[in-house]
Design a protein that fits this description.
Blueprint lengths: L1 E9 L7 H19 L7 E5 L1 H10 L1 H12 L3 E3 L14 H19 L5 E3 L10 H6 L4 E5 H5 L12 E5 L2 E8 L1 H6 L5 H10 L8 E7 L9 H7 L2 H11 L3 E4 L1 H7 L4 E2 L8 H6 L3 H16 L6 H4 L8 H4 L1 H16 L7 H9 L17 H22 L4 E4 L8 E5 L3 E6 L5 E7 L4 E2 L12 H5 L23 H7 L11 E5 L5 H6 L14 E5 L3 E10 L3 E12 L3 E10 L4 E10 L12 E13 L4 E23 L4 E17 L1 E12 L1
Parallel strand pairs: 1-2, 1-8, 1-9, 2-3, 4-5, 5-7, 6-10
Antiparallel strand pairs: 6-7, 11-12, 12-13, 13-14, 14-15, 16-21, 17-18, 18-19, 19-20, 20-25, 21-24, 22-23, 23-24, 23-25
């Protein structure tokens, strides 16, 4: 007999658009349970992230009541996890415990269960978390079969669970069957039964292990039609509950009745697709080519064991914007450790640890500005609360992002600013305390490994019965339109970026990032010279024409309540006329319509941007007339449904001629509309 361990994982990023959450409730979460309740013999497990549970409790009482009923009648087993769905391996141990215990308490209070199983966010396994899980009362964790296959285990030995330990703390591991992930709910029921029956030979009571996204049951493309209108779910449940050789089981009961297969030690990894997504773009393409080569030569069975992608943590290297968010949260956690008994500070800190904003794969993640806005909102809230509790100095100098270079964090009554010495003394955060909004929350236009595939989409091939998963779906796109939008920046989209160029700079080349650059001031480190009432960054660099011409750039910032005054002093040995551009990049929740195309604004000594979302005006003033250019920063990214063209902000360039030396004063002030 095969014991079917069936689980669904349901999650929405914290404060996601309510219409998106409601759509998932109405298309997946609620109809799934409404069908399942009519099959009481179907035992299954669920994990809902804590914020989603709270949202359902407050906004859909009938669904929440249904969940309670299914719990009290013994049909559902609830799994724990981090309340706000963090990657547990990248937050401090005390925060892990806070996150898990918060969800444990919610489940106990609302569903009468004390969870012993844990849904591991994105199945990011790192043995360093074991001690904390055990101390929170967790006895078993869901991982992927790939975790085992990549370390040499045979597929036929993965139809049960294993034990592992760290520092003598033991925990059990259930490997999700990738075959079932791709079969359920996409293939006809008889195909699934055929597969389940095929594994009956592996042991006395082997387990068919499936724990996958609840959104697959109604939200993913074509799934609502297939699962409910075509009655796939009813057919599946009728077949499973009437089978003599397949019996639905809770994980907790399987653990009680069956012994572990053996002992296992797993590498730091996630599911196979995540390993691909976390690769750098060039590596992604090489990985795809290698996979295709092995398949053509009949070596695909060796692929998962010997060919591996990267680890999840590489997203923090791949995307500087992700690393900034992660390290801001980490700094708040470590600095604020003595104050975690303060409920408001702790709650905002935990909310800022939601994982979705830190990475990007087939879902938007980091590419979705609203998710980044939500995370920064809670970072700013936590920062403000910590400021009340600890009363830090106005100016702090430390390596905030842990890259070996100092940042300067400046806190006023109205703003939180960060300047980064590694990033050329540029502004990398401009947060408003009253609106809890970071104007510097931009995203750089960068190459993604899948962009090449967008330009040469695969031809549709006849599909088998059922529907296609999003991992194999063919996107309906216009390659030429995509090609025109694929523009890559060679530097990070911060503010107070310095360019030295020539007549090659115009609106078109600014937009396409194709103007000639002659200096090493755009993306090279500056020395932090002084950080008291003024912040001074300096670089002894060069202008590179026929040879290197020694050049010095000093950037002096003075910060008042809602105003930054910058003095840019440049001297070069190069004798002829050059052009200097100071570039700013600002994020807007809703970019003003008149700025949605590249624009040359003419010459002026002032420039204003009105933002209706924050009800603020950003005012620039200069000590001389400058040419002003703007263009929208738009990115091309894949999503579960299509290709997304997303505005990430507005790029602004202020240009002037200079010869041998430049003294430019720029003031940036933010005032109420």
């Amino acid at each position: 007999m095969v014991k079917l361990l069936f689980g669904i994982h349901c999650h929405q990023p914290i404060d996601n658009f309510y219409e998106v959450v409601d759509d998932a409730i109405n298309k997946a979460y609620k109809p799934f349970l409404e069908v399942v309740k009519d099959y009481p013999d179907f035992k299954f497990s669920v994990h809902y992230s804590g914020w989603l549970l709270e949202y359902i409790k407050n906004n859909d009482k009938s669904l929440f009541k249904l969940m309670q009923d299914l719990s009290y009648n013994g049909q559902i087993e609830f799994f724990s996890g981090g309340f706000y769905e963090p990657i547990l391996a990248v937050i401090p141990p005390d925060d892990r415990k806070h996150q898990i215990e918060k969800l444990n308490n919610f489940i106990k209070e609302n569903f009468g269960q004390i969870p012993k199983g844990l849904w591991l966010t994105e199945r990011v396994w790192d043995s360093s978390i074991v001690t904390d899980l055990v101390e929170c009362g967790i006895e078993y964790v869901i991982v992927d079969d790939y975790h085992f296959l990549s370390t040499g285990f045979k597929k036929e030995a993965l139809y049960g669970y294993y034990t592992t330990e760290s520092n003598g703390y033991k925990i059990n591991l259930f490997p999700i069957d990738k075959n079932l992930r791709y079969l359920i709910p996409f293939k006809p029921v008889e195909k699934i039964l055929e597969y389940l029956n095929s594994i009956s030979k592996y042991g006395v009571n082997p387990a068919g292990i499936i724990f996958d996204d609840g959104e697959k049951f109604g939200v993913w493309p074509k799934t609502y039609w297939w699962v409910y209108q075509e009655r796939w779910l009813n057919q599946f449940l009728e077949a499973i509950t009437s089978q003599k050789d397949v019996k639905p089981y809770h994980y907790r009961d399987y653990l009680k009745e069956e012994k572990p297969i053996g002992l296992a030690y797993l590498p730091i990894t996630s599911y196979h697709e995540m390993g691909e997504w976390s690769l750098f773009p060039e590596d992604f393409q090489e990985f795809e080519e290698l996979k295709e080569f092995l398949e053509k030569n009949g070596l695909q069975n060796h692929f998962e064991k010997f060919v591996k992608g990267n680890i999840w943590h590489n997203f923090l290297v791949k995307y500087p914007e992700s690393n900034r968010i992660h390290k801001r949260v980490l700094d708040l956690s470590t600095t604020g450790r003595p104050y975690k008994k303060n409920k408001e500070f702790l709650e905002n800190l935990l909310k800022s640890q939601c994982n979705d904003v830190l990475w990007h794969g087939i879902f938007g993640g980091l590419y979705l500005p609203n998710l980044r806005n939500n995370t920064y909102k809670y970072i700013i809230k936590a920062d403000k609360e910590l400021e009340k509790l600890s009363k830090p100095p106005k100016i702090q100098v430390k390596d905030l992002d842990l890259d070996g270079y100092e940042e300067v964090k400046i806190t006023t009554q109205k703003m939180i600013l960060i300047f980064d010495s590694k990033e050329s003394g540029q502004l990398t955060e401009l947060s408003l305390k009253d609106k809890e909004f970071n104007f510097q929350n931009t995203l750089t236009r960068r190459k993604e490994g899948y962009h090449k595939n967008l330009l040469t989409p695969k031809q549709d091939t006849p599909s088998e019965e059922g529907i296609t998963t999003i991992h194999n779906a063919q996107l309906e796109i216009d390659p030429q339109h995509i090609k025109d939008l694929l523009i890559y920046d060679w530097y990070t989209k911060n503010s107070f970026i310095d360019h030295i160029t020539d007549d090659s700079f115009n609106l078109e080349t600014f937009y396409r990032c194709s103007f000639r650059e002659y200096s090493d001031f755009t993306n090279q480190p500056f020395n932090l010279e002084y950080a008291k009432d003024e912040i001074v960054f300096k670089r002894k660099g060069g202008v590179y024409k026929d040879k290197k011409y020694n050049t010095i750039l000093i950037k002096t910032y003075k910060v008042e309540e809602s105003k930054i005054t910058a003095l840019l002093q440049l001297q070069t040995d190069y004798k002829d006329i050059l052009k200097y551009v100071c570039e700013f990049n600002f994020h807007f929740a809703n970019l003003p319509h008149h700025l949605t195309q590249p624009i040359y604004h003419g010459k002026s000594i002032t420039f204003k941007l009105k933002d209706n979302y924050t009800q603020k005006t950003i005012i620039f003033n200069f000590n001389k007339e400058l040419d002003i250019f703007t263009y929208p920063i738009n990115t091309v990214s894949q999503s579960e449904k299509s290709v997304d063209i997303t505005n990430q902000g507005l790029s602004i360039g202020f240009l002037t001629d200079f010869q041998e030396e430049l003294n430019l004063k720029i003031t940036l002030e933010i005032v109420d509309l």
